[in-house]
Amino acid sequence: MASPLSQLENFQKNSDFVFLVFYRGHWCPFCLNYIKSLATLVPSIKAAGGQPIIITAEDNPSSLDIVREKTGYKDAAISDPCHDLVNDLRRKTLIDLAITDRKGYPHGMVQPGVLVLGREGEVLYSWAIRPSLSNLGGAKDRPLLEEVWRDVEAVVQGREKVVKGVYGKQTFFQGIGMKLFG
């Protein structure tokens, strides 16, 4: 199996941009809700020449099966349990993803983030959560992907020069609704 770094490089070579969504794990209702939102955007992202990719530190293949089943997301995924990709992105100062201790993650769990990179590696959008008590340790207060995509799409289509905007946030009730109602 190809390394997480080479997987991302391959996706970048074969698309105009990559739309990366980092998530905590299959057990997180907030992450599942977020990926469900991404799944609705996949056709638009692909039509614009992009490649959506979900990334996690989970290394159990059955965990990805659970995510796909619960969210309807069928596209690209990268497992990065040793944080090779995450550390490379941090080293290049493209995104500063937090890594926190959690049982079942020998090297730590990557907290949520979104990174959109152009074909040449230019950052079109970057956001990473800083876990705190107010955001339930990194669970909530994520920018709404629909709004992020709207701005990224404007840049990709040449209508804007940079992604800008203030985004609504995923609420506690949106995240927990996924746990209660699937």
Automatic annotation (TrEMBL):
Residues 8-125 form the Alkyl hydroperoxide reductase subunit C/ Thiol specific antioxidant domain. SUPFAM superfamilies: Thioredoxin-like (SSF52833). Pfam families: AhpC-TSA. This is Alkyl hydroperoxide reductase subunit C/ Thiol specific antioxidant domain-containing protein. It comes from Zasmidium cellare (Wine cellar mold).
